[in-house]
Batch of 2 targets.
Target 1
Amino acid sequence: MEDKKHTNQQELICIRCPIGCRMTVTHNQDGSLQVAGNSCKRGEEYAKKELTDPTRIVTSTVRIKGRSNQVLPVKTKEDIPKGKIRACMEDLKQIEVVAPISIGDVILADVAGTGVEIVATKHIK
Amino acid sequence: MNQQVDIAIIGGGPAGLAAAVAAHSAGIDNLIIIERDEELGGILNQCIHNGFGLHTFKEELTGPEYAARYVEQIETLQIPYLLRTIAVDISVHGDRKAVMVMNKEKGLFTIEAKAVILAMGCRERSRGALNIPGYRPAGVYSAGTAQRYVNMEGRMPGREVVILGSGDIGLIMARRMTLEGANVKMVAELLPYSGGLKRNIVQCLEDYNIPLKLNHTVIDIDGKERVKGVTVAKVDENRKPISGSEEYVSCDTLLLSCGLIPENELSVGLGVKLNPITAGPIVDESLTTNVEGVFACGNVLHVHDLVDYVSKEAESAGTHAAAYIKGEKKAEDKTIEIAYTGGIRYTVPSAIHIENMEQNQVIRFRVDNIYRDVELTVRIGDTTFIKQKKKIMAPSEMEQVIIKKAKLLEIPNPEQIIITISKEGI
């Protein structure tokens, strides 16, 4: 995403479909956003969300007690704010789970104060 | 007496699993999956990121979750499988195929199968194949190897990283290494465009301010015991390094994401003919190779981008293998070649037998460049089957067209199916 400094415009590429429309978003005086360059509504929605409240799903791994050669893959159950990714990774570092684990098991109820759960994505015997 | 099965499936990754389930659904229960790793699931076990299954399950799953959906079916249907067992040779043995396998418990032994489904997947292009000069220091890994270390074994391959290749594996690892505390200094890409999804450019590189250097490559690796740095250079339109553009980048790790190659050593040993463009077997509409009773699907046939397509293709292979066992294949008379022009690199299948084709026969293909605002045409003689406007087509996005058998049967003496891409009106 490019910031044109000293202007009220930003450029970004849409990721909602393979076309990858290059969009330009204008910040109006009244605080609203104007999206140009999109080919569909999904692009407009994506641009607005990405510039006001960018969120991401985070996928990573956590340690398993007693296993030095195996880790458990996990994910945030929903999107979390992009700015919380670092804090999320710090929280995951503190965790050590105990096998067995099933897909969907809640590993952490609220990661980095987002209210979002961390869940297991693999069965571990 | 060797173990006798109807179908032996080589590989328990997404292709092998889907093929097994489909063959079982079609009535074959004397089958066996041969898997060399500790568990079923194949490459999906290390692909802990999400984006899998949007087509198949209408959900975005991580790799292990997608694999689990199929492993559950394998367990429920009680389909037999061998783990930590590697197939070392396949040969024709009368009217069966002899699959020689090896594991710790039984040593070397043979399984005789009426039909074999090749589902071995692919390997990554190595540093040797890329001819990057230098000593052989520790710290040079394929991106997939690094992915396995990090995501399955919990090991960090290094801390200061340069990645060569901007395909999805390289992009995903740029993010993964960064999240685990590494400093990913850049992703260098030989071509003028990235082979990865836009989503990954944004969420793996832009999110973490990792520079993407298009038209660049690594021309030297510095370090004797351990990587100390690499030399990166810009390349010209012939992909040759431009003198004077060299830049030394200190690092302790080089990850290579420079292409996937179907793993067909077993196929070649069996006498299966490969398509030099895909490096995978040449197959017909039933995904049968030139060796009767030998089918191929998934990445071993041609490298896919979406696991959903792998599952569909493997389902087809499993169904056809079952039909072969049951003697349902009709005697073939007419073969129609699939020809292509104007920017298409290859098609799978390469030819169709009308009698045995599916009601809705899928032909998958890739283009050789990025094309915008073009027309995709499929015709036989003067009959146009498909005419589609396409806003964008890219080498990194496998495409497919569907030929209806009923419509094909209406054409007298069909010779070739011709697939073309052209600018509108030309």
Note: Chain B has a mean pLDDT of 95.
Target 2
Amino acid sequence: MTQINWTELVVFSVLFLIVAGMGFVAARWRRPASMHHLDEWGLGGRNFGSWVTWFLIGGDLYTAYTFVAVPALLFATGAGGFFALPYTVVTYPMAFLVLIRLWSVSHRHGFVTPADFVRARFGSPTLALLVAITGIVATMPYIALQLIGIEAVLRAIGLTGDSFVARHLPLIIAFGILAAYTYQSGLRAPALIAFVKDALIYIVIIVAVLYIPHRLGGWSAIFDAADHKFTAAKKGSLLLPEANQLQYITLAFGSALALFLYPHSVTGVLASKSRDVIKRNMAALPAYSLLLGLIALLGYMAIAAAPQGVAPLMVDGKPDVSTVVPVLFDKMFPSWFAGVAFAAIGIGALVPAAIMSIAAANLFTRNIYVEFLAKDATAADQARVSKLASVLVKLGALLVILLIDPQFSIDLQLIGGVMILQTLPSVAIGLFTRWFHRAGLIAGWVAGMSAGLAMLYTIPNPATHHAHFGGSAFSLATLGLPWNIPIYAGFLAVAVNLLVSLIATVIARAAKIADGVDATVSSDYFADQGDPRLVS
Amino acid sequence: MADDPAHPPAERTDRSPWNWLLALPVVIPLLPFLYNRAEPRLFGFPLFYWLQLAFIGLGVVCTAVVYRATKRQS
């Protein structure tokens, strides 16, 4: 049992409590006439400017899990983990033209979720329901994973124990506070806290990349140490093996396609006040990619710092790679700064967890509750249901982490990534063309989901002794095809989805199956700030 | 304020030849043969790492140019 580092704990707790206070006070920031409306609670008033949006979306996309898992990946396997870099470079130019259209049509029609848009565009409650369920199921494990980030930090501080309470009480307290201020302030809470979170992360990382290499003998020494480790262990490599290149780029590309399909990304975008804010952010958000690249290299710093005692902590008898970065900070920084770094990661879990739970709650409220259970729900009713739903979503995530092996959440998140990609045809392509038939898209979704889940099922992970859902690299040789090269399963699944959507659309048209009515007009997709909302 | 369907917002478009610039930072980072090498190193970083970091700059520049260039249109 490790000793508690009291300095780290105190600094961490103080910063955490300051941020919690901000969360409660956020309800008064940009004070609304009433918080009892989804536009206010769920989208912060739909009025965030460029800076707020930059901090919000940055805080939303770059999560504690990202900061803990990406370096852990480089620590364990090397170059393959760096896919996160091209992924985040490629996603913004791709999203540029798509998101401004989504913003415009949502501005005109008052859409809160991607399923709202699909409902109006294709006139299909069923398709919208599928999109909503996909969104909720894909988001929930992501929330659970933020807790892994917090737990890794708490372990490094020394807050572990043998009893259930000792191990998990701090986490339960943290989440209780998170649930309370999200209930109170809605999206304003993470938006305000994101300023603190992102500022802390930038400070910590800039210090880390200047100070730690200096102590370890320079960047050459760091890369050489990593190279030696991989060569000696015969696992991982400093560059990409030829056979892994296709997996690398399809994983990067597939992840980039998926990123802005996630409901929490859409929430961040719809909360902004104009198209210009979005465009500016597509150009400015890559600053976080630079941050992510440097964070990834912390994994190699951890390898090079092995002589200083940096190694993954043992959890239940096995080394837990996700603790590598907190341990690095613990050993290399003076305790007070390590506390700051831990607070950065911990708070870095709160912001996305809040936004994700709000996004999932909005999906439930608008696309399940109002659509199927309470058609006459007023704006105040919707806000109330969403507030409650967001608490339940967080509670569910907490229970999963406490009661089920964290590896389960990692597997689920992997599946979630493949799942959310299946909304690409209806949401992303639907923003540009109405060509697909609603029945075609439903068929495509079913095909893509089935294919994706089937592929993931066949992938084992020998390291964790999982026979199924062990990773996302699928080899076409499994289907009997001559190419034994791994490729990202999500990429293949969405390709199947598109193909089936296409074929099924042609068949549906030929069979004269009734199509839905498009409630949008083409000018909606260019609406900007100041254009009136349509009253339906 | 109710919208008057007889007077929708004036004809706007997002089309612009500038948009093609967005393809550059999408395609280039996905060509591993460009960067799957260790030499030449920069500040101790193998090429695989520093070049991919440099692509961030490419993305920022292209996106910023498209934003500014298409601003005057609508």
Note: The CA atoms of residues 21 and 62 of chain B lie 6 Å apart.
